[in-house]
Amino acid sequence: MIYLDAAGTTPVRREVLEAMWPYLTGDFGNASSHHELGERARAALESARADVARVLGCRSGEVTFTSGGTEADNLAVKGIALARRTADARRNRVAVSAIEHPAVLESARSLARLHGFAVDVVPVDGAGRITPESLAAVVGPETAVVSVMYANNEVGTVQPLAELAAVASAARVPLHTDAVQAAGMLPLDVRELGVDALSISGHKLGAPKGVGVLYSAGRLTVEPLVDGGGQERGLRSGTENVAGAVALATALRLAEAERPTAAPRLAGLRRAFVDRVTELVPDAVITGDPEQRLPGSASFCFPRVSGESVLLELERRGVVCSSGSACAAGSSDPSHVLLALGIDAETAQTAVRFTLPPTITREELETAALALGDSYAAVTGIAHR
């Protein structure tokens, strides 16, 4: 099997398993317990928090462990918006980009439905990029929070985040970014990015599913969504997932150490793969920004061809990829991301996404490209070159 769905999830790294194993067995204590076993768990948790903070360039106290990227996004969008409106009743609007992950979009819709917020949607251009001007046209004195993802999970487009953060800062509006796909591939220093909140998910990095992180600047007030014993600075009550925190911190640290060589390597492989696909299947249309994109992300539309049919043919040939976000699997609706890029609904249904794991080889990608050509021929009856 050639696995090209790293944006969906990744296998747990051996180093991560070894790091977390002690906290699933001998050092299984509750980090809130005041005995030796609990203290050892607490020490591991805080060490993991410090490791994450070093990668993000923030203070340990600004790192909150969550159950994943979705919870981190919910806590950021809802928690910041509710806290800001409590402090200033005028702050009754939230702004999100048109291509956000459902975790952000549904959080904004929930604020509108349950709390009376208005939602402003920031448009993108045909490559999926947001301009500072388009963001400036939306944010204002009534905006409680802005959420713009760092890199898109479907088309791979990377946003000019520092420029957008400057616009939000000038309007005195905190900016949250969903960095789930960017982690391990792009710089994450929150000071350089200028963001006020940032979300990460462990299972995109080689940690298990079920653990994530929210960075929120210490100056920000965030309304907790889960009430209870007051763990995680009172932002996320519940018994701490020590093994998960250790796993995420280990995976993030390893990915960040490898990024200077891994990211350029993947970018080169991705460019060669795109060239080969368009050579074999001239009808293939690359989606997203051709250059300002994640190193390992290649997404296409195949006009007049069912994307699901291509996926099935690829899997028969041992290549695993996807049609878009795993969170939208099973939906018959066209991708909201592709529609926002100006792609018509019929063409949006033909999407196929390839996201490269760090271990992929040039030979595997050549095999995958040939399999795609054969799959396209099988579906259309048109032989590839």
TrEMBL record:
Pfam families linked: Aminotran_5
Keyword list, A-Z: Iron, Iron-sulfur, Metal-binding, Pyridoxal phosphate, Transferase
Record-linked PROSITE patterns: AA_TRANSFER_CLASS_5
Cofactor(s) needed for function: pyridoxal 5'-phosphate
Gene3D superfamilies for this protein: 1.10.260.50, Aspartate Aminotransferase, domain 1, Type I PLP-dependent aspartate aminotransferase-like (Major domain)
InterPro entries recorded: Aminotrans_V_dom (IPR000192), Aminotrans_V_PyrdxlP_BS (IPR020578), Cysteine_dSase (IPR016454), PyrdxlP-dep_Trfase (IPR015424), PyrdxlP-dep_Trfase_major (IPR015421), PyrdxlP-dep_Trfase_small (IPR015422)
Catalytic activity entry: (sulfur carrier)-H + L-cysteine = (sulfur carrier)-SH + L-alanine
Record bears the keyword Iron: yes
Similarity-based family: Belongs to the class-V pyridoxal-phosphate-dependent aminotransferase family. NifS/IscS subfamily.
UniProt name for this protein: cysteine desulfurase
Protein species of origin: Sinomonas terrae
Taxonomic lineage from the root: Bacteria, Bacillati, Actinomycetota, Actinomycetes, Micrococcales
